[in-house]
Amino acid sequence: MPPSPPTDLRQPAITPADHPAWAWMSQALEDRRAVMRWPDGQSLQGYAGGLLAELSTCAPGSLGLISWVRLVDKPLRPEDLLARLKSCAQAMTEGGLLMAADLGPTSLASLAQSVEPQSAEGLELAAWRAGRLDLHDLGDALSAAGLAEPVMESESLALTYRSEQTALEDLQALGLFLDQPAQAWSRALTRLRTPDGLISLSLEVVVGHAWRMPSRKPKLDPQAPTPIRFARRT
After folding, report:
1. Burial class for 216, CB neighbours closer than 10 Å (0-12, 13-18, 19+)
2. What is the distance between the alpha carbons of residues 214 and 178, in angstroms, rounded to a whole number?
């Protein structure tokens, strides 16, 4: 029997929203939120999943929590990321919490080493990795958006597959390799097989949160000195 023709993998078998990595990130944010203490005993009022279309319908200062998985759906310029975070801050109430998670730039490091850097596949993968959220850059962007006390962390997810096709379908659901022939990526994945026959890939997950702190009331006279008061210790 002649071999079957290679499968056209340009359409992902699962949608990005269904990918297990995003579900894992959603659970990571829920676990983090479960141990949060809202400032001054404030309770959670208002929630949004972080989509720009959803935020645009929210009144300013109406949300106590924004939980945004897949914060960067495509490579963003720093100013575009900042504008996205500012839209979050505008929709948040004072004392509100923004939580975000996405894939980091060290994702798929082994795959990047298995392709020729100047090939079409290598260039596409390099561009995809460069567009991921760096841990420190996201923390800086949260601060620049007017949010306070950013806390960031990253973890590594290990993915293993038995077939190249399954791995490709999975990665395409993350927005990768949509414009390249499947055969080239299958060869790259084959080179990653371990002695037990499995293909091993890793994803860096970047998770962080920051608060919208209460606004400080401006001085009536900006030039007036700020008084310092001493209280007797009891």
Report:
1. exposed
2. 44
**CA-to-CA distance for 17 and 23, rounded, in angstroms?**
8
Can you tell me the distance from the alpha carbon of 212 to that of 93, in angstroms, rounded to the nearest whole number? 7
Coil/strand/helix, residue 113: helix
* CB 170, CB 159: distance < 8 Å: yes
**Average pLDDT, 10 consecutive residues per value, the chain (234 residues):** 34 54 85 76 60 76 86 80 90 89 92 87 86 88 92 90 86 72 79 90 92 67 67 65
In this prediction the pTM is: 0.75
> Which amino acid is located at 208 in the chain?
G
The first and second tokens of residue 141, run together, are: 């962007």
- Residue 148 structure tokens: 């306070």
Decide if 54 contacts 48 (C-beta within 8 A): yes
